[in-house]
Known about the structure:
The complex is a heterotetramer of chains A (about 280), B (about 140), C (about 325) and D (about 350).
Chain A: E1 8-17, E2 24-31, H1 34-39, E3 47-52, E4 56-61, E5 72-77, H2 81-87, E6 94-101, H3 107-110, E7 114-120, H4 125-135, E8 146-152, H5 164-169, E9 174-179, E10 189-190, H6 193-200, E11 207-212, H7 215-227, E12 235-238, E13 254-255, E14 258-259, E15 266-268, H8 269-273
Parallel strand pairs in A: 7-8, 7-11, 8-9, 9-10, 11-12
Antiparallel strand pairs in A: 1-2, 1-6, 2-5, 3-4, 3-6, 12-15, 13-14
Helix pairs in contact in A: 6-7
Chain C: H1 5-17, E1 23-29, E2 36-41, E3 71-75, H2 77-88, E4 97-101, H3 110-117, E5 122-128, E6 131-136, E7 139-144, H4 151-155, E8 166-167, H5 181-187, H6 191-204, H7 210-214, H8 239-252, H9 262-266, H10 274-288
Parallel strand pairs in C: 1-3, 3-4, 4-8
Antiparallel strand pairs in C: 1-2, 5-6, 6-7
Helix pairs in contact in C: 6-8
Chain D: E1 3-7, H1 11-19, E2 23-30, E3 33-38, H2 57-60, E4 64-70, E5 79-80, E6 89-94, H3 96-109, E7 110-111, E8 114-115, H4 117-123, E9 127-131, E10 157-161, E11 165-170, H5 173-179, E12 185-186, H6 188-205, H7 215-220, H8 227-231, H9 240-244, E13 251-258, E14 261-268, H10 289-308, H11 318-322, H12 329-337
Parallel strand pairs in D: 2-6, 6-9, 9-10
Antiparallel strand pairs in D: 1-11, 1-12, 2-3, 4-5, 4-14, 7-8, 10-11, 13-14
Amino acid sequence: MKNPYLPTPMRIERVVVETEDKNIKTFSLSFLHKEDEANFKYVPGQFAELSVLGKGEAPFGMASSPTQTGRLEFTVNKMGLVTTELHSMEPGETIGIRGPLGNGYPVEALEGKDIVVIGGGFGFSTLRALTNFMLDKRNRSRFGDITVIYGARNPGLLLYKEELPEWAKRDDLQLYVTVDRGDEDWKGKVGVVPVIAKEAAPRADNAYALVCGPPIMIKFTLPVVQELGFSPERVLLSLEMRMKCGLGKCGRCNIGNKYVCRDGPVFTLAQLNHLPAEY
Amino acid sequence: MKTEVSGWEPKIVAFLCNWCSYAGADLAGVSRFQYPANVRVIRVPCSGRINPFFILACLQHGADGVLVSGCHPGDCHYLSGNYSARRKFALLKRLLEYAGLEKGRVEFSWVSASEGGRFAEVIAKVTEMVKALGPARKLVKK
Amino acid sequence: MPDLSAKIREVVQKMLREQEVELVIGFEQGSMPLHSTPCFIRNEEDAQRLVWNSFCDNNLAKYLVKRPEKVAIVAKGCDTRAIVELIKEKQVPRDQVVIIGIPCQGMVDRRRIEAELELNEILEYEEQDNKLTLKGDGFTKTVNRDEYLYPCCQACPHKNPTTYDILIGDMVAEQAPDQYPDIAEFEAKPPEERWQYISGEVNKCIRCYACRNACPLCYCKECFVDKTHPQWIGKTTDTNDTFIFHLMRAFHLAGRCVECGACERACPMEVDIRKLNRKLAADVKELFGYEAGTSLDQIAPLATFRPDDPEEFMLGV
Amino acid sequence: MKAKVIKKDDIAGFLDSLLKEYEVFAPVKRDRLVVFDRIHSGKEAFLNYTTSITSPKEILLPQSETLFTYSSTDSAADVEVPSGEERPRLIFGIHPCDVKSLIFLDRIFNEEEYKDAYYLGRRHAMVVVSMGCIKPRATCFCTSVGGGPFSTEGSDLLLIDIGDEYIVQVISDKGEKLLGKAHLEDAGEDRLSLMKRVTQDAEASMAPKLNIDGLKEKLDKMFDDPIWDLLAEKCISCGVCTYLCPTCYCFDIVDETRNSGGERLRLWDSCQFPLFTLQASGENPRPTTKERYRQRIMHKFSYLIDNCGQIGCVGCGRCVTECPVNLDIRQVLTAISNR
């Protein structure tokens, strides 16, 4: 068995500064060794530990779709020791990766269903991966209608600014981009995610809702999706928690008897309803 | 316990306050005073800025000696930074030596902006003391 | 030692009845012989649980920091010293705490008694006046409590509360000011021997931080050992890192340590922690004339200075 | 079951013979405390003890261990995993409760989906020579959590003190092999009946069992119970209980740099430390002692049953005797059961 603590080297190919405050960057990485790439099979919603030798590791969801080969993307918010170091790194430099970890979105269960993606802020990264996965021409026919509702606090904090207009042009995707507070240049929607979700009112029969965002958004969005008719089994959430090993062993990321790193990070609302409300 | 290693030159970190001791070092340079080249200078705004961890981190990671130097009492640019520092340093120096660290590894001095000559003398003295002690062995992280 | 339990209960019941405070922090019987344990009393009936004996060794001031409610606290000399420092450091508002001061006759070092009895486990004990009667499987032994006081209690010059709102029991005679003879003796040893001794002590440390967490004056939200950015010291039990942890833990308590010995009692590995704390306490007293926790008015020594502070340690050129 | 006998005076010599083949760990005395450590001579072993202060888990799960080293912090550089132990390990004089903790750790670090190479490197081929507890402490509660002072589970040999000699019970083939060259005398009827008396006396001297039947079912309904506020009120969030506990295994992973390179380390961590769950954003989902103490109890007595069919407590009593504020897990479990 492979030693799960050993990082695999990857080269930074491209760094995109996502937000105006420059605190969020997306790193595009390629494996130094071809065989490592072949071994890294993942589904949207899974995550990996990015490793900077001398600083440590931190977990991030894959922001890219597995349909896009040759590159892995991670959207990194500058927060602590590892992320600060990552933010100082440039294309050509090498970092390590451990993964894929966690369960990811239940792609097979989603097949044949309408999909409603609801994301807020930084939590949108793995939902973006899932959306691109579904939009891939080999996959698009496997899913029903796709609705994407994505919000940030202000226009400067919206991620994936190159990609959103592309999505907007498509006729096989209903896109709602919103901000809590606009500015002079902002022509789009203004309003918090739960309100926009209620307005958009996607049909709930034969559909799944996937929700990821800050706790406050989740809190107000869950009643909305349930009002729209999504049963708890059809609402999926991706959680986050301080993690170290990513293997369900180091003992810190559990909610009740489930480890976010190993049993999650994706849970149905029905599962979460059976777990304690706190960590 | 003296260990004279042939060809060995000590590494000494000197934390100098921006307003007095650093200027004193500058003056020593401009005035062409000779002093040993063992010192690596770190400029700090005030001797009051010195966190004891700065000193311990130096010893842990390869310094053979540490010098902290600030303005003479009464001359602090921030009025009382060096007074507060003096109390801290008094306790720290005593604690380190009590725990068995050699006298002379960690030293404190006052050097003003006009004391270029004194700066050279302080450095010479510190270097001589650390040389006599030999390479740091205690608190050094292997 | 007089049994003050009944008096404490009476006072506490009255306080709770009259709603003078919402909570009283005191001691109750512990779950093992020779143990008392902190307890939190919120109603009159529960006040019956309160006890006072030779094993009320925890420093309860630990529990006062950032309390939302008005609290009364049962406090020995060292507890009151800690409360004084906490008040001065603005961690405890003076008007939010009612100090039930208790003159203390020193607490008993159960580990020393247990070590002497070796494998004979104490299953029951009785305390009467100055005698402790210890009973176990097939043995009964009576000892004089005063011979088994904690080292910090033996040296304690402040057995009486340094400040209080209510006093229970009679003030006890204080012994002469601490001259720190143990520190002087240690200091007289060669530096290498001191280094070896402290290295040996810190090598026992398992970095559980019980010393820090038991200390009434350690309340930082983020301790220096937990900092990652910058990381001051490594997190392993490497001797140098652990040495620096203990040096700096003691240094952070310079002029604040009330010498209650909570750190040493909490340490499962019996590290001689007070060797460092007491050095600083001795120096603070000698250099700055300050004894922690003895006065609400005197400014903490590292929060002030005098232009003529000693500087004999400075490099003379 | 085969039973041999060995004189107490011959133990040091027996250990010396084992030292030729094994890395031997045994209780040793350090000042007033007994800890487990590697011995280099049979004389070092100190067997006349009740409970060691630290648990022998550190033999399998060191407080800090190197996952790998690197000569440069460039992630393209090769990392090096430390090579495993060369000689098989032998633990001597360990009490049955601590042996139970080794079996517990096996189910965490050697399970179907996760085999920890570092752990297994130390555990595989390990020989366990345990020693029955003829004098359980009043704080021992092994019998309440499925163990016993003379339990043979997990041992290869079990020693029982009958005065000047130990009865050596042969539990496994490994144990039998170990005795191979020692040529010990059979115990014989008289000694065995003496042993029976000793063990019966010891068992009878155990404190009454805790009444904790149905504890898990209780706990599963009690996450939001206000009792947690009270139970944890005196806890000071130190790591004594978790660090001394033979089954607490939670860990941290950190990097340490030296010169240009460094190492990635796995260290003991404690769910009682606020930092354990503190996120980089400053958010802490377990902000107070209440949440952290609840996690400790829930993990040990509920979650572990769901996840690997065992509880995380062997009843050694270390957390009971060493807690600086006398927060007694026996009282806590009883309070929960009485809820």
